[in-house]
Amino acid sequence: MKNLKLASQEVEHRTVVNASGVEIGRDFVVIAGPCSVESEAQILNTARAVRAAGADMLRGGAFKPRTSPYAFQGLGIQGLKILEKAKKETGLPIVTEVVDPRDVSWVAEFADVLQIGTRNMQNFSLLKEVGNSGRPVLLKRGMYSTLEEWLNCAEYILSEGNPDVILCERGIRTFETYTRNTLDLSAVPAIKELSHLPIIIDPTHSTGRISLIASMSMAAVAAGADGMIVEVHHKPQEALCDADQALTPDMFANMMKRLRPLKSFLNNLPSDSNAKMNSAQAR
Ligand code: PEP
Ligand code: MN
Question: 118 in ligand 1 pocket by Cβ < 6 Å?
Answer without folding.
Answer: yes
